[in-house]
Design brief:
single chain; mainly alpha; 8 helices; disordered N terminus
Length: 147
Amino acid sequence: MSSIKIIASSLFLAATLLTGCSQTPTKPAAASLYDRLGGKDAITAVVDELAANVGADSRINQRFAKANMKQFKANMVDLLCQGSGGPCKYKGDDMVTVHTGMKIKDDEFGAMAENVVKTLTKFNVPAKEQGEVMAMLGGMKGDIVNR
């Protein structure tokens, strides 16, 4: 083999090795909250349990006495699914429209939040994911309380 071919082959090999070594390994994309919660079936199970917990909570169950619980649960599933990065689309009214005239108090909002945490804990949802769910729902407080 001629010395030019050897040098060219060596340079090509060196460039290939250096390029491969200089590339930053790709980090796998982080799973969405939706995926970490277990998807729509898991969210549906959580919402079903949440509705039962709310129904048993005398601090807030009167707020749901005349509610269409089937519709409430479907909307809540879609809200959590969409808000956590899932494929669902929330089709209900915005939170201001839904809660205007209800005059929900801070302590009632807090009771609902406690029920969410209780439910997530029952399903062994890790603290990080619980925090993300609570931040999502807590961000709606201004649209819900004292309307």
